[in-house]
Write the structure tokens for this entry.
Amino acid sequence: MENCFKFALVASLCIVIHFAQASRCPLSEQDQWKEFRNSCYFFSETSTTWQSAKESCEENGSHLVDILSRGENEFIHQRLNTYRYSEDYYIGATDRQHEGYFVWESTRSALGYKNWNVGEPNQHLGTPENCAEIKTDNGKWNDVPCDIVMRFICKRPVSRE
């Protein structure tokens, strides 16, 4: 009976370990991928334009982050604050196709959840601001010119392989 219990315990542990390993985010040297719920998030350590950030995410099987809930926004904001990053980060919202109508680039769907800073989006001083960033200090969003060079966040589903 004791052997059966040991076998069942070992088998259960193997199953748990298998599923824990099977739902991991990609590994990287700097541990830039983080898991939250059913998605993996990549926090870049390099800066680039919005278009280049979009392409970089796509090359890694992901897309510029679409933030779909308050919980997701809080996870990202907490992550940025945990590491005391001072830079703001590009997110996947844009109104490049239709001025004033922001959509998520990855799906072309309208923003359901929104966390704009007070008075945003605003096309500050008439300057085209067709891309969005998340502010590290407060987790709010701001529209900015797409050619500003800054860090970015990618998102992809958790791998179940």
Summary: The radius of gyration is 19 Å. The beta strands are 33-36, 39-43, 63-64, 89-94, 103-104, 109-110, 131-134, 141-144, 151-157.
